[in-house]
């Protein structure tokens, strides 16, 4: 009795079986590859630039004659960079430095640009915008400074006196107060021109000459004591 011949698998069935077998091979390596691809995607996306609004330290370098009447305004910048770069700005703020000369007006408007912002060393980011675009600085209109006193005294030698005689001025330094632009140009003051005879051991009160200093300028004290002393040869 002849048996029924066994049914052979079709070609499509063999291909399907082979495909399933191939998929099941090296599952560990394939899973690792997928994991690494996901990690790489996360790393790449973490480096994509982000935008953050950060405070900026505005530092005007003022001439010694300038005194601000008000607190410095707040300045902010829009900075683009990787998250880890922007995180560095929380420890070290960007800065803007600007030199302000003595001849600046009492009210000074300063324009600001994004390129004026200096990022801390080691921060790889880009400043996109700055706010505000301009700031106003207001300075005190009067100023005081201490300057030396120079003698304009003529010494008249009497009773046949000879030798080198010089006036000793006390105090040798006085305070000058007035409009800032005028006081900034005063480097010393002089006594009025007067004549004192020598020998004379008494101190003389001599006025400070304010006529050439400019309007609104005051000197304190307004007088100095002058004594004549013989210089040693």
* Dominant shape: elongated
* CATH structural architecture of the largest domain: Beta Complex
- CATH fold-level assignment of the largest domain: RNA Polymerase Alpha Subunit, Chain A, domain 2
Give the oligomer, counting copies of the same chain as homo and different chains as hetero. Answer: single chain
Q: Which whole number gives the mean pLDDT?
A: 84
Core attributes:
4-stranded mixed beta sheet, 41% strand, 2 domains, single chain, alpha+beta
Please give a structural write-up:
This protein is an alpha+beta fold. The protein folds into 2 domains: 50-138, RNA Polymerase Alpha Subunit, Chain A, domain 2; 142-230, RNA Polymerase Alpha Subunit, Chain A, domain 2, CATH 2.170.120. The chain is built from 4 helices and 15 strands. The mean pLDDT is 84.
Write the layout of secondary structure elements.
Elements: H1 11-24, H2 27-46, E1 50-62, E2 75-81, H3 83-88, E3 95-100, E4 107-111, E5 125-131, E6 134-138, E7 142-150, E8 153-157, E9 165-170, E10 173-179, H4 180-183, E11 188-191, E12 194-198, E13 204-209, E14 218-220, E15 223-230
Parallel strand pairs: 1-3, 7-11, 8-12
Antiparallel strand pairs: 1-2, 2-5, 4-6, 7-10, 9-15, 10-14, 11-13, 13-15
